[in-house]
Amino acid sequence: MTLEETKKATYTIPVGPIHPALKEPIRLALSVDGEEIVDVDIFAGQVHRGIEWLGMNRNNPIQSIYLAERICGICNICHPFAFVMAVEHAAGITPPARAEYIRTITAEMERIHSHLLWAGIAAHEIGFDTIFYLAWRVREEIMDLIEYVTGNRITKAMFQIGGVRRDITEEQFPRIRQSLDYYKSLFGQLKRVFLDDRTIRMRTKNVGVLKREDALKLLTVGPTARASGVPKDVRQDQPYAAYADLDIKAMTPDMVSGTVVGDVYDRIIVRLLEVKQAIEIIEQCLEKMPPGPILAQPKTAVLLKTLTQAEGEGIGRAEAPRGEVIHYVRLEAGQSTLATWKVRAPTYVNLMAVPTILKGMQIADVPIAFASIDPCMSCTNRIVVTDRAVGRKSVVGYEELHRLSVEKTKELPR
Amino acid sequence: MELLTPEKIIDSFKTALGDSFIDAKIYQCEVAVKKNKFRSLWVEVKKSAFRDAVDHICHLQQYPHLAIISSSDLGAEVELIYHFTIYYGHHLEELSLGLRVKLPKSDLKIPTITDLIPGALFTERETQEMMGVEVVGIPDKRRLFLPEDFPEGAYPWRKDEKGPPNDMLRVLPGREPK
Amino acid sequence: MSLKAFKRALWVYHLNTGSCNGCDIEILAVLTPRYDVERFGIMLVGSPRHADVLLVTGPVVKQMVPRVKRIYEQTPDPKLVMVVGNCGIEGGVFYESYNLAGPVDQIIPVDVYVPGCPPRPEAIIHSVVMAWVKLEKAEQGVS
């Protein structure tokens, strides 16, 4: 299909009916032969807000932390995390060890909330709304904890260059442990619901397979890569924050099932394991957290002056729930804004794997397979379906796709 | 696969590229309580040897991870940094490797590396539309993020007269655009 | 503020015009068991043609302008538009970008503003109820 044809056919409406996490507008053009998908084209950039440009032209580096936070409403710990690390490396600032631990704790809380959010959405995609509501009810506990620790549910504003803005005190530990115990007690049930349920198994096994080779070639990151058997995890590979002190191991599906298939089911396994891992990491951090200050330079004006005079470049990497986030920052002496700022979000690279994942599958499997990479900037809101067999071209709305997916679940042999 | 130290990697670049190797530096800092080292490596090469350098990285690691291409407008030149990560999958052994290449503004062209690393496509498309660097031989020339009606010849990340025109900026009432 | 009766269910259509997802997941949280607005008959629907209220998030990037207008036209009268989040109200942190066309009220008329970055679920529920009251008044021909 040429671009011209696609242009005529795709009139994209940013449909955002029920699960906004997948509903950031993106367009996919699917070419199908009957029910089978033979080619996929991706149109990104429906929500391009020019954030990097703002950081390079309008904001000073401290203001840009809050801009980085608003790159994504779901991963709004890991973006400022990577950003402040990049600025710290560029300006030669070392954050105190206690701040590193607090950063790690908040990042892991975010992982729990994000993976539970995803679990609900994945269940919704196959028409299993009971599980969707269950997962989101369970998720509220971690949202409460995030609010208790950081003061807000979504945009946490915890990060500052050279440390964090709020401390986690000894008195808060029991409340944190209480939430962690809640999840630990629930883990068996979650595992049973997601891994042993017949419907989920039938809809996710051998669906959306991404082979190890393809994952490596297409630079896939995060749980999507790990589910394909690539043990790549920044927390394990390159030391940052408190992860450098802990012995972290990348989660791969063979730890549970013994084999690596690289399908949607494997991605569920990896995310479940990571929820468990996140709880363990928070517990270890609470135990090992050293005393001391939480900011390298508590005076914002002094910090800003240091940053204006600093010259250098740095790279910040953090493992977000969806994969690796990389920020590159270059500072020029005498310039109040960032000289260069480049952000790489995990979905940016994971999207490239979507054509490989979708090829050869049925249209009804598109929602769950696409959701399985946990696309953060994207949604299958409207898809152009070109039927090669009859040469017919029609536009399928997201609702229609979802209906097909739900029907497929209903038609499963009981 | 043998894991080389950053110093040895620089030496291997020198041997592989000869005169085309310009400069390299190692950045490291200590992290948290155990003081493990965060290391990143920055290598600058001549534009003519750029593809050889990428090829060399492919020898250091079978599938190097290309995170992103960052581009800076330095006035007379545009600097591209290809951010690779190598030796992933090994506890605390991974290295960030920035491959730096400078292009004069009179000749903003860089060969594609999608044949070596297929996943480089998105970031090459982005560099093309945002910085105005022509990627020679790129299999997909379309824009990635910018709208179709974005003016031709304007590139958001440029700091010279080719940056986004002022009348495109949405300004708060009563304020001047920066 | 008084609601005479829950005469009918209120159907809401959610439209993302380039938001960061923060508001969007809070809107979704409103639907799920903790806040559960479906018990009041408030429901997200998949098509603007079924909706009474348009819930708009995001600062409206340029690509989205024709789509926002078209969705507004597709929604049957009487209808209300709610903007959720600061960036839809006045651009928020994204102001001065080269790719913005918003805020939302520059493109379509807006009835209810919900400030916050993002607003809490309680604030979103409160505003939906306010929209409901306004809609009832509109239906009775009182403005």
CATH architecture annotation of chain C: 3-Layer(aba) Sandwich
Give the strand order, joined by hyphens, for the main sheet of chain A: 2-1-8-9
Q: What gyration radius of chain A follows from the Cα positions, in whole Å? A: 22 Å
End-to-end separation of chain A: 39 Å
> Main sheet of chain A?
4 strands, mixed
Order of helices and strands of chain C: EHEEHEHEH
Task: Report the β-strand fraction of chain A as a percent range.
Answer: 5-15%
CATH architectural type of the largest domain in chain A = Orthogonal Bundle
CATH superfamily assignment of the largest domain in chain A?
Cytochrome-c3 Hydrogenase, chain B
Q: How do the helices and strands follow one another from N- to C-terminus of chain A?
A: HEEHHHHHEEHHHHHHHHEEEHHHEEH
Averaged pLDDT of chain A, please? 81
CATH class category name of the largest domain in chain A: Mainly Alpha
Care to count the β-strands of chain C? 5
Q: List unreliable stretches of 5+ residues of chain A.
A: 6-23, 377-395
Query: Which chain pair has the greatest contact?
Result: A-B, 56 and 53 residues
How many domains is the backbone of chain A divided into? 2
